[in-house]
Write a structure and sequence with these properties.
By secondary structure, this protein is an alpha+beta fold. It is built from 14 helices and 14 strands.
Length: 403
């Protein structure tokens, strides 16, 4: 959907204008990342400008993606979407707070995702992976997104925050609408439902606290005071959106790649010691997040005059798929050196606080699935589709294998 198309400002050279709408651009098959890269690389210059969604800049090299994400002096996280539809919501804390104001809230989340905690959660993820796979292995088929991807990471998340397992389907559906609903009204309505659900749980934990993350947040003090409800609502919304969507979306891209590349499957089955590196390589090749930042003050980037208040789109695929950083970046090479040197989990002070847990859950999938279902394919006659706004996902993925 194209929104708020803008005439080219005087500070934008005509040769840097690209007809690109983040929320509606042609994707070839399931190649969301490649399609975006091809569109950007078809235009000259390392910085582009599009009139869509209010008009905004786009950075298209690994160097500039890293710069925008790490330079807090010139780029703010106050606005993290190129559209303005989330402007009336509470800020997603700590993601939409600039340093140093973000630090105390980020620390609350980090405590629940420490290496020690992730170690225990990793074993739970392994147990759950085995349980799920064994549950449908004998059938010779599954709808991967609904039967695995939306179960494994979300079940672990529900345990971290102490939410009842029976609420998973409801919350998953609401989060999907909040992230990728057809209309702004639908997305805002879903976000409102998530906020209301989360704050109801906060009220419960304030009355009867437990050992879960929501209880920790509900009781936490920042600067000697309990977190006010407005700030807490944004924090809870971010927590729910992150926990209910991102790893599930990444799992879909992992599964579709392995389903269509038998030589890569065999490599991991025969050499399971490669799985840790393969995990990093697949993260590099299939980023799902498209970030954005607001320009704080006038500056020049790649010869372009950025003005205070301008929005800059930061597509993480343009880091992992930059040929100046990675040799043959579109190819998946499980022996690649240092594939993890990328911004798939963001960058700078806002790098994803749950990245360690996400990596662990994704590795559990690779290890346990390939032990039990080493050969599988996309069901003939089905046509999986990619749905995306700021986070891309595969909406349905029918897999088949011989029993």
């Amino acid at each position: 959907m194209t929104t708020n198309a803008l005439e080219r400002p005087a500070n934008v050279p005509a040769d840097r204008v690209i007809d690109f709408d983040l929320y509606s651009f042609p994707v070839e098959g399931l190649e969301y990342q490649r399609s975006m890269r091809d569109i950007f690389l078809s235009h000259p210059g390392d910085v582009l400008w599009t009139p869509h969604n209010g008009g905004h800049w786009i950075v298209k090299t690994s160097e500039l993606v890293g710069k925008v994400l790490s330079d807090n002096d010139h780029f703010s996280s106050r606005r993290i979407m190129v559209s303005a539809e989330d402007s009336d919501r509470p800020p997603l804390v700590p993601l939409q707070l600039d340093p140093p104001h973000h630090a105390a809230y980020r620390q609350l989340l980090q405590q629940a995702l420490s290496p020690k905690a992730v170690g225990k959660l990793g074993e739970r993820a392994r147990e759950l992976s085995i349980e799920l796979i064994e549950g449908f292995k004998k059938d010779g088929h599954c709808e991967f997104i609904g039967q695995f991807a939306q179960h494994l990471p979300i079940a672990i998340f529900m345990e971290i925050v102490g939410l009842p397992a029976e609420d998973r389907p409801l919350l998953t559906d609401i989060a999907e609408t909040a992230m990728r609903g057809e209309t702004e009204e639908a997305r805002n309505d879903a976000a409102g439902k998530l906020m209301a659900y989360g704050m109801a749980k906060v009220a419960e934990r304030r009355a009867n606290p437990g050992n879960d993350l929501i209880s920790t947040i509900a009781k936490a003090e920042v600067d000697g005071k309990l977190i006010d409800d407005f700030t807490l609502t944004g924090l809870i919304l971010l927590l729910l959106l992150g926990g209910l969507d991102t790893v599930a979306s990444t799992l879909g891209f992992y599964a579709q790649f392995l389903a269509t590349h038998p030589e890569h499957r065999r490599q991991l089955v025969e050499h399971p010691d490669l799985i840790a590196n393969a995990n990093e390589e697949l993260l590099r090749r299939f980023p799902i997040a498209i970030l954005a930042r607001e320009v704080k003050a006038d500056l020049v980037v790649d010869g372009m005059a950025f003005k205070a208040g301008d929005m800059v789109l930061v597509p993480t695929p343009m880091d992992g798929l930059d040929e100046d950083k990675f040799h043959e970046p579109l190819s998946v090479d499980f022996n690649r050196e240092k594939p993890g040197a990328n911004t798939t989990f963001g960058g700078g002070v806002h790098r994803c606080v749950g990245s360690m847990l996400a990596r662990t859950e994704l590795r559990m999938f690779l290890e346990e699935w390939l032990k039990r279902i080493p050969d599988f394919a996309i069901k003939p006659g089905t046509s999986p589709k990619v749905s995306a706004r700021s986070v891309a996902t595969i909406t349905s993925l029918e897999l088949v294998w011989a029993v």
